[in-house]
Amino acid sequence: MPYINEEGGRLNNFAVEPKVYTAEPPTNSQKRNYIIGGIAGIALVGGLLVLAFTVS
After folding, report:
1. DSSP state of 10
2. Number of Cα atoms under 13 Å in the Cβ half of residue 22
3. Per-residue pLDDT tens for 1-46?
4. Which of 6, 28, 38, 44 meets the CB 3.0–4.6 Å disulfide criterion with 10?
């Protein structure tokens, strides 16, 4: 880890910065997978709510 000596003998540590990159927009197949995952999540939560009301 890189560090420097400041006045008075104090050490100052600096974190190693990660490489910066630009994000790319999702492809059509990734968009489709996000939609399918969202629908599956909504169906799961809805099913759990129906089950909870049915049991109680």
Report:
1. -
2. 2
3. 677 777 777 887 777 788 999 999 999 999 999 999 999 999 999 9
4. 6
